[in-house]
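re: that chain from earlier
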Amino acid sequence: MKITIFGASGGIGKFVVKHALDKGYCVTAYVRNVSKLKIFHENLTVITGELTNYKCIKKAITGCSYEIHL
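^ sequence. v structure.
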């Protein structure tokens, strides 16, 4: 299952990313500043963008089963 997490570099976002990866999910983390997300995993894809960037958001949610907004 693929999950996209918006706000993944925040305090709660990092926790949710780690939890989802530990559960075996494929995670797409949508962040504004990639340097704040210091998580590396084979099932993690990081997309950098603003919430106003339609192309980046579309890329992040394509094939996604669930979206989590934090």
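The chain has two helices and four strands.
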